[in-house]
Amino acid sequence: MKIYYEIKSKHKNGYALLMQHIILLLSVVILFSCGDEDMNRPWGKGDGVPQPVTVTGIENVSGGAIVKYALPNDDNVNYIEAVYYIKGVKTTKKGSFYTNELELDGFPEVGEYKVSLYSVSFSEVRSEPVDVTVYPTTPPFLTVAETLDVEPVFGGVKSIYRNPTGANLQLIFYKLNDGGIWEELETLYTSLKEGEFYVRGLESVETTFGVVCRDRWQNVSDTLEIEATPIYEEMADRGLFANLPLPGDITYDMPNRTPPAQPWHTGAGAGVGNIHALWSGNTTQPFSGTNPYFFFSNTTAGLPSSITIDMGREYELSRFVYFPRQVRNSSNPSAHTFAATHVKRFELWGSNDPNPDGSWASWTLIGSFNSVRPSGNPIPGDENSTPEDRIVTTNGENFDMPEGIEPYRYIRYRVFSTWGNQPYWASIQFQFFGNPVE
Questions:
Q1: Is residue 175 domain-shared with residue 296, that is, in the same domain?
Q2: What is the pTM of this model?
Q3: Tell me: the pLDDT tens digits for 217-268?
Q4: 313 CB contacts (<8 Å, ≥6 apart)?
Q5: How many whole angstroms separate alpha carbon 96 and alpha carbon 3?
Q6: CATH code, domain carrying 92
């Protein structure tokens, strides 16, 4: 009673505190009294062999199969496992106890494949196997390979593809070099259901090209070969470019800038420049007063907004390349790619004799264009972008001109929307490609 009295006299709840200490001490003793075997043993119902699953149906799909099953009435089952072989390599797929089907994939061709299904206990003990046979239909990489259509374009070649299942695939372009060896040119990672794959910057000489389709299990289609001569193109000489502000265009003067300009970011920082920054030749950070990018942010004017460029000579245009604004450092990938000020919908207009009153009657619509992510994801934001999407920041986003358009000297660029639904837009650089008119 003396101990109890002393504790109670020092602590209002002394007895409760003493009991907490005793319980804690007992817990530690129990914990350390357990041997290694007890500590490492999986939680579960026991070490017995679990009951097998019952297969209720099989759905054969492109490059795979969906096996449906009924779980056994056995509390010792932790998960279901399927085991099958692809090209002699063992493949396993696990299904949760809370589902009743397993999707098997990676099969390289149409055929007959044996699959063994197991119930697996909490102690990793397998049941007796339940063997089934699946018959996958044509896998996605072969389906896409059958649709490939390669043709020459300005400055390179392109392949049109259709991917009806939306599978994650790689399209790889090669050329046959002088030594008779296939040399890889470019790889496209895509899950789009249809699209076009371009290789640019090639000489206008007859070349043997090859293209294959590969999936994530490294299954590869046969090489589609074609002899093609890329159509000659060159980048329009940006040294001849000049701003041609017309009534109705962005015309906000910033007299403190050199050279003085019309389109401007009102209240711009040191990295923002006038419209001439769009053909400075610079496509990378860091940006400064002498190495700027263009940023139109007059929220009062809003969109649509337009600028007019005098290219200095007529060009039969083949494509236009847009470089979105960059904000990037070691811990922050580009926050403006397919977000914020990245232009989403725009038009290009051409003229050789523009009316100085700014009216559109003297202009011809070259085309209406929409920005599309390589991944196909329509949701804005860098967090929704893939590494392939972010390559657009450094390589630019290409827009092909319609075939057979007239040569033009003056280009009017008209923006209607941005990925971030902002009333303004930005760009690091514009590039135009095509054939100059002599």
A1: no
A2: 0.67
A3: 999 999 999 999 999 999 999 999 999 989 988 865 444 444 444 444 444 4
A4: 237, 240, 409, 436, 437
A5: 56
A6: 2.60.40.10
